[in-house]
């Protein structure tokens, strides 16, 4: 029995010495320490690079939003801040995720199962919420490409009105009669924006053939200039083109007036009213349909 105990103790002592030797060899290996130092340096570089990229990306987003605010219509400040923070968070999460993958690869982790799982999860979410993803992506492009802004008058499909709100998923358009249309951004494929460039007001004034054309044109010019001086929506002096057409009973004189975006209808209404007053004051007849009735009375012959 004593011999067996002594043999076991000797074997355990030898095993302990072997483990200690392995540990000593492990920690005393210069190449291993160099590899560990290289991995640590790479992890630090990846971490610092990720922070720098995030900071530069957020600064670029801020500059883009400031540039959008200098355009024809300023976006709502709360909306700009919300979108800026949202995009900044998305970029931060994406870059941090990439940095974590790079750090794990430096630590010799197998990334294939993780990437495969993320790919399957992304496909499941994509197939389950295709319309939602499409609406969100389209909303981003609408905002950053400045296709239209809050307060613009636009037409998309059969809907036309003033933009009340631009969301990441839906856009609210208020019709001129008061209805609010909620349109998913993904269904906005074509947009006509009436609020970017100046509009042209076209006014056709009809006078009778008996009226002297030159006199009528002078009266129309003077009246158009008077409207221009009193209407802030007109950005340039109106242009009287002259005789536009010769109708069956009238001579049509055309006037063009450049106006602020989507104010040409109001300008045309005011112009028509002032033209009617001026022509009446000068005794210039505006032709209109007349119906003349002849009564014929037959004489009865007496026998």
UniProtKB/TrEMBL annotation:
Key words, A-Z: Cell membrane, Membrane, Transmembrane, Transmembrane helix
Protein's membrane topology: Multi-pass membrane protein
Transmembrane segments: 33-54, 86-105, 111-133
Compartmental location: Cell membrane
Annotated Mechanosensitive ion channel transmembrane helices 2/3 domain residues: 89-130
Source organism superkingdom: Bacteria
Keyword Transmembrane attached: yes
Residue ranges of domain Mechanosensitive ion channel MscS in the record: 131-195
SUPFAM superfamilies: Mechanosensitive channel protein MscS (YggB), C-terminal domain, Mechanosensitive channel protein MscS (YggB), transmembrane region, Sm-like ribonucleoproteins
Domain Mechanosensitive ion channel MscS C-terminal residues, every copy: 202-286
InterPro entries registered for this protein in UniProt: LSM_dom_sf, MS_channel_1st, MS_channel_C, MscS_beta-dom_sf, MscS_channel_2nd, MscS_channel_C_sf, MscS_channel_TM-2, YbiO_bact
Pfam families hit by this protein: MS_channel_1st, MS_channel_2nd, MS_channel_3rd
Family: Belongs to the MscS (TC 1.A.23) family.
Protein name: Mechanosensitive ion channel family protein
């Amino acid at each position: 029995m004593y011999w067996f105990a002594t043999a076991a103790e000797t074997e355990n002592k030898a095993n302990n010495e072997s483990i200690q030797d392995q540990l000593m060899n492990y920690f005393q290996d210069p190449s291993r320490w160099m590899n560990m130092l290289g991995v640590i340096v790479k992890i630090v570089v990846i971490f610092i690079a990720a922070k720098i990229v995030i900071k530069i990306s957020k600064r670029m987003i801020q500059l883009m939003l400031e540039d959008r605010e200098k355009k024809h219509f300023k976006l709502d400040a709360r909306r700009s801040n919300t979108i800026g923070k949202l995009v900044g968070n998305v970029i931060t999460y994406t870059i941090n995720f990439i940095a974590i993958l790079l750090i794990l690869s430096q630590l010799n982790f197998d990334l294939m199962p993780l990437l495969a799982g993320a790919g399957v999860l992304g496909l499941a979410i994509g197939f389950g919420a295709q319309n939602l993803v499409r609406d969100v992506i389209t909303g981003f492009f609408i905002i950053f490409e400045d296709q239209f802004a809050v307060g613009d008058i636009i037409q998309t499909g059969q809907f036309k009105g003033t933009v009340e709100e631009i969301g990441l998923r839906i856009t609210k358009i208020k019709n001129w009669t008061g209805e609010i249309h909620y349109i998913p951004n993904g269904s906005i494929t074509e947009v006509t924006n009436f609020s970017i460039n100046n509009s042209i007001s076209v006014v056709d004034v009809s006078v009778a053939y008996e009226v002297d054309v030159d006199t009528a044109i002078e009266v129309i010019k003077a009246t158009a200039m008077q409207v221009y001086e009193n209407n802030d929506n007109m950005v340039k002096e109106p242009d009287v083109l002259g005789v536009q057409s010769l109708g069956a009973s009238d001579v049509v004189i055309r006037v063009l007036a450049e106006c602020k975006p989507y104010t040409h209808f109001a300008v045309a209404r005011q112009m028509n009213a002032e033209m009617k007053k001026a022509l009446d004051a000068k005794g210039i007849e505006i032709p209109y349909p007349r119906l003349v009735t002849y009564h014929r009375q037959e004489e009865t012959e007496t026998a």
